[in-house]
Amino acid sequence: MTNAMILKNVPLTKYNSWRVGGAADALFIPKNLEDLKNFLKDEHYLKPLTFIGLGSNILVRDGGIRGTVIVMHAALNEIQMTDKGVYAEAGNTCAKIAKTLAREHYVGGEFFAGIPGTVGGALAMNAGCYGSETWNYVTQVNMIDDNGNIVTRLRDEFKISYREVIKPNSKEWFVGAWFNFKKDMAGDPESKIKEYLNHRKNTQPLNWPTAGSTFRNPKDTFAAKLIEDCGLKGFRVGNAEVSDKHANFIINLGNASAKDIENIIDYVECEVFKRKGIKLEREIKILGDFLG
Questions:
Q1: What does the pLDDT look like over 101-155, one tens digit per residue?
Q2: Residue of 17, 19, 61, 213 with catalytic role
Q3: Is 213 designated active site?
Q4: Which of these, 14, 16, 119, lies nearest to 77 by C-alpha position?
């Protein structure tokens, strides 16, 4: 029996980077993997389960999320150099992974510095930037099921594509992964990280609450260009707005509702399809219920 503290009716605004949304029926923040396993083995939690990291790629609707939300990023943050590769638990931020790899003279992981989420989130959506994707480097992963059992799976058990990962079992969630980054004592990954961070700072509206890229890039073009070409930079609903700095970012100007943001997403999709004939696909995940 676990002594886990389960919080009830918790507002989720501080658990997502848009700073919007309603409450979770129940919220659990594990101390470590053992704590999470024990919590799930008890089977006394409210269902369904929703796992989140930094909440940097989700829109939580104003009616909140039913069941139990498990926040991974405060725990499950160990990184180990093993004979099977670099093992990173799912709660690590991508920024931490990038810095750790660089410090240990591993190359190839610099792109993680540009991903504002956790390893678990990066695994779930095959996050990427600067020409690299998470699953390019994954060899195998550890999953946890809804009974608290750990399952190790190989890369080829998943269907991997651009910003999409289909798991062999929907009732399993990522708790860690092995990456096959190579050591190069002559490389200079820290300089590349600085270059990526400067580019991010200069091109993205990082001073506002946002969830990063809202839409996936269609083949042979960029979502931001399509949105900008439709004259939608600065388009506003309530206190949410299409960023003037980067058209694929929607920002919360202060006290925006999730409905404001979702209305912008719907409108942008319609306008781009109407004017350009291209159906934008969402990169962000929309969770929870409408208010009322």
A1: 999 999 999 999 999 999 999 999 999 999 999 999 999 999 999 999 999 999 9
A2: 213
A3: yes
A4: 119
Catalytic residue among 155, 163, 216, 236: 163
Report residue 191 as tokens: 């300089």
Residue 45 to residue 108: CA distance in whole angstroms: 40
pTM of the model: 0.95
Q: What is the pLDDT of residues 154-172, one digit of tens each?
A: 999 999 999 999 999 999 9
3-state SS record for the chain = CCCCCEEEEEECHHHCCCCCCCEEEEEECCCCHHHHHHHHHHCCCCCCEEEECCCCCEEECCCCEEEEEEECCCCCCCEEEECCEEEEECCCEHHHHHHHHHHCCEECCHHHHHCCCEHHHHHHHCCEECCEEHHHCEEEEEEEECCCCEEEEEHHHCEEECCEEECCCCCEEEEEEEECCEECCCCCHHHHHHHHHHHHHHHCCCCCCECCCCECCCCCCCHHHHHHHCCCCCCEECCEEECCCCCCCEEECCCCCHHHHHHHHHHHHHHHHHHHCCCCCECCEEECCCCC
Q: Which of 89, 241, 269, 283 is catalytic?
A: 283
Q: How many CB atoms lie within 10 A of CB 202?
A: 9
Find the length of the chain.
292
Which pair of structure tokens corresponds to residue 131?
């020409």
